[in-house]
Structures are given as structure tokens and as C-alpha cells.
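1st attempt posting a full record on here, be nice pls
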Amino acid sequence: MNKKITKEQSNNSKTRILNSAVKLFAEKGYDAVSIREICRNAGANLCMVSYYWGGKKELYQGILDDLIEKQTLYAKQFIDFNKAPETLSKQEQIETVIKVLEKFVDFFYSNISKELIILLLKEQQNEEFKVKSPAFDYLVKLIACVFNKKVNEREIIFKTLFIISQVNSARILPAFSLRRLGQDNFLPEDIKIIKENVKFYFKALLKESNIV
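the predicted structure (as C-alpha cells):
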């Protein structure tokens, strides 16, 4: 029984440290934050950072790894990663893209904190920033198949970028969404509108390419 409690407490400390690190890195930047400050803010023992990550650099990477792990586990509920997109019929590919995009909306608006968004946006300017996301990679392959292109073609890279921007733009640009609505959070009806907009944009691309 004690071992179970100790493990739960340990996992709780890990979560608190990650949340604290996200908040402080987003507010102050990587260089201005110390491991000691992160742990003090998290109410966790300093040694837990060494135990789980090793140091500050590894903890920083751990934030990104934790996000991808959660996204991947979530995506496995509706994506069969063992089924290659090219084996699906065109209609199945289109339906799967729409399904994945809708699920991406649900994940992004319920699992990504404001601080994590700030951190991720800052990291986009870092030339060394690379994230391996199985869910995103699968979506790119799907989109490439739908438009009969290769995943590394410019058209697919930009099409995917613009499609994803339909998913996250309202959250990334709160001054043009939440603040104009006079709200602190997105309501269910807002999420519905975002999903409809994503589908409308994707279907417009299909129509433009004479696919449907």
C-alpha cells in the first residue's frame, strides 16, 4: 500500500514540476529560470528533477516529450497507426482527415495551457526546435494521399500548415477571438464553429483540386 502511495505522490510531483516549468519558462524564458525556482514553485523536492530528467535542459525537453506522449496516446483512440494512409480509399482518406482534424480541435482546446502555447510559439523561432509527432506525421501522410502528392512537396507542407492554422488560430490569437467575445474561455458553441470552419476550409481545398 505504501509503495502505491509513494508512486502516486512521485507522479504527482512530476506533474507539478512540469506545470511549474511551463509557467516559468513561458513567463521568464529559459535562461532566467532555475531548477530551484521551478521546484519551489511546484512545492517539490529538488532531487525529483534529477530523478526524472537529469537537469534543466532535459526538463525543458521533457515538457515537449510529455505533450507529444499525451497527444499520441489520445490519437491512438481514433488513428490506426499501423494502417498506411495509401491503403485507404480516397473517401476513407478524406473522412479520416476530417475526423483527425476534429479530434485535434478537441485536444488543442482542452489540453494545451496558455503558458504552453507561449512556450511553443517561442520555440518555433529556435532553429534546433524539432518535434516528432506521430499524430501530425500521420495527418501529413493522409493529406498527401488525398491530394496525390508526396509528403515532402512544398504544396503539401503549406497545405498542412494552413489547415492546421484553422485548428489553432482562435486559441493562438485570443485578441481576435476571446477578447472580442468578452470571454475567458471557449464555449462548446465556439468549438463547434471552429470545427465547422476547419471542415469548410479543407473541403474548399478539395473542391479547388477537383477531388470532390
